[in-house]
Design a protein that fits this description.
By secondary structure, the chain is of the alpha/beta class. The protein contains 13 helices and 10 strands. The protein has a 4-stranded parallel beta sheet with strand order 3-2-4-5, sandwiched between helices. The radius of gyration is 20 Å and the shape is globular.
Length: 354
């Protein structure tokens, strides 16, 4: 992983020129053109016009129709097994592009240039690619690691605040996974809007290293170690999917849903496994300071629980989640009944006045 500022010209372009390929395809989030046109022009100049595609981003692009659109674009451009795909965009677009690379002609090489904080610290790392199906997050996907990931902090300059805070929820998650040192650092930093460039470089590098170390030990989730990266996501993915499909509720960003998931799952860990009450209090305080409250009621629970049962970790009717007992100590918890999850959902709702 290459990380820095303004590295498209200094590192990415030379890297691409040094790779042997019969055709370079470049997929770019269309929202980036107005702020980063000059840098993106360097990438456009490496290939022909028909092999560059500006595409919308956002969770809604993780669909079969969008995946088919990319397959047809690759086919029209004459892509072969010797071609290369560069994906420039946020986590949703890198997920989609990586899955297109994984499946077209049974696999093309690809490179990722994540442009959101969520992509830089999580989505672009680890070799997973996926789309959503039937309202379930990441239901269809593959393991297909990129050749390389380039992270350019220049993209954070134009990142909307909502997207910055959404990505910061994954930073908080990695603090809980990594251990006391990173967790204390996150608590000390507080609001991510105030961070310096050196602090961002350090945080992104630590989160990426944490994920890379875990993935290296369990690249395709065979041993189960990689599951700890799903901390907060059993409940979080259900909340996110439900919010996007329910006209009665405000749509949640991925990060907002993960923060709620972390709180609910940590509460369950306190009650069921003797987890740290101090960690739960700190997490609640971070959420109060950084994220808006999300309202739901008890009659939303059946739909949320149904989505949790479709989570890829679920097994033999049990809902499975990873819970943090303290920073650096993550355990798997299998729940055969729904009572504990309802209690956790109650905790968030009552704590935040829902």
């Amino acid at each position: 992983m290459e990380t820095g500022r303004q590295i498209i010209a200094s590192k990415l372009v030379p890297y691409l020129r040094g790779l042997a390929c019969d055709a370079l395809f470049v997929l770019i989030d269309e929202a980036l053109e107005s702020h980063h046109g000059e840098a993106l022009g360097l990438l456009r100049g490496l290939t022909s016009e028909e092999r560059v595609l500006s595409h919308r981003g956002g969770e809604e692009v993780k669909s079969l129709s969008a995946l088919e659109e990319l397959w047809l674009w690759l086919q029209r451009g004459g892509a072969s097994r010797s071609s290369l795909l560069l994906v420039v965009g946020g986590g949703s677009l890198t997920d989609l592009g990586a899955l297109a690379a994984a499946t077209y002609m049974r696999g093309l090489r690809h490179i990722l240039l994540p442009t959101t904080l969520l992509g830089m610290v999580d989505a672009a790392i680890g070799g997973k690619a996926a789309i959503d199906l039937a309202g379930v997050k990441n239901l269809v996907g593959a393991f297909h690691p990129p050749l390389e990931v380039f992270t350019d902090l220049a993209f954070l300059d134009s990142l909307p605040l909502e997207a910055l805070y959404s990505g910061y929820a994954e930073v908080i998650k990695y603090g809980m996974i990594s251990g006391e040192a990173l967790w204390r650092q996150i608590l000390r930093f507080g609001d991510p809007e105030t961070l310096s460039e050196d602090e961002w470089l350090g945080l992104i590098a630590q989160c990426a290293r944490c994920k890379e170390d875990i993935v290296a030990q369990d690249p395709e989730e065979i041993s189960g170690l990689r599951r700890i990266l799903n901390l907060g996501h059993t409940v979080g993915h259900a909340l996110e999917a439900y919010s996007l499909s329910s006209p009665k509720h405000r749509s949640l960003s991925h990060g907002e849903a993960v923060i709620i998931g972390l709180i609910v799952e940590t509460y369950i860990g306190v009650q069921q496994l003797g987890g740290s009450s101090a960690l739960l209090r700190q997490l609640v305080q971070l959420s109060r300071e950084l994220y808006p409250q999300w309202h739901y009621v008890c009659r939303d629970y059946p739909a949320l629980l149904a989505l949790m049962r479709q989570d890829k970790k679920s097994s033999r009717g049990d809902i499975v989640m990873m819970v943090a007992l303290e920073p650096g100590n993550i355990q798997e918890l299998r729940l055969s009944t729904e009572d504990e999850i309802k209690e956790g959902l109650d905790f968030y709702r009552e704590t935040f006045g829902g």
